[in-house]
């Protein structure tokens, strides 16, 4: 078995935008004449906020509203989420420098130098992904992008990762890509579970959750993107019994 493609998560792997999401959710609550998030709520939801997209954002915001005695229709909820997505783009446009995680350029260089295909799978909405990749001059490297606009479920459902395989095969018919020939880079337990359910190998990067928590679930665990040894990963992929091997970088 060989490694043919690397699939990135977005929030928490490419961009560190958790504080922006926290701020924008608070703004929505205040605009609705409700109390902003409490300290305990922020602490309990840090991982969710750092990585969530449309589906998980909906559930999170609905829960905040419910805790404040406010029930809204699905239509109104989508209006709130659309307003937040627009505000997210505006906030990023104000920044002189995007809060990207260090090492992303190096990892992309490693991937491209080995002639592997590169894709992105996230629950985040496409406009949010697009502005980051375009501003960071990374958009040209991602052959396929699966966003929250393309899927009806959120992680840990494997729908997004399986759709990425289908799209890569459409883009490159000669690739004949199978899920087990993909490596996923994730930063949360639910993301790792989604990739595993899609029968993919996973690198867990400890940007959002502690190293030890990801180590129990991922095939490889690293502290920083720069620590990824793609050559070692390819060697493991070439072994027949890869499913039974759980190495660390």
Strand line-up of the largest beta sheet: 3-2-1-4-5-6
Please give the number of β-strands. Answer: 6
Taken as a percent bin, the fraction of beta residues is 5-15%
Name the overall outline: globular
How would you sum up this structure, described in words?
There is one protein chain. The chain has 249 residues and is an alpha/beta fold. The protein folds into two domains: 5-16 and 100-244, HAD superfamily/HAD-like (Rossmann fold, 3-Layer(aba) Sandwich); 18-94. The chain has helices at 18-31, 39-44, 46-51, 54-67, 74-94, 104-113, 126-135, 159-171, 189-197, 211-215, 230-237; strands spanning 5-8, 117-121, 144-146, 182-186, 201-205, 220-222. Strands 3-2-1-4-5-6 form a six-stranded parallel β-sheet. α1 crosses α5 and α5 runs parallel beside α7 (126-135).
Search tags:
47% helix; alpha/beta; Rossmann fold; 2 domains; globular; six-stranded parallel β-sheet; 249 residues; 11 helices
Produce the secondary structure layout.
Blueprint (H helix, E strand, L loop, with lengths): L4 E4 L9 H14 L7 H6 L1 H6 L2 H14 L6 H21 L9 H10 L3 E5 L4 H10 L8 E3 L12 H13 L10 E5 L2 H9 L3 E5 L5 H5 L4 E3 L7 H8 L12
Helix pairs in contact: 1-5, 5-7
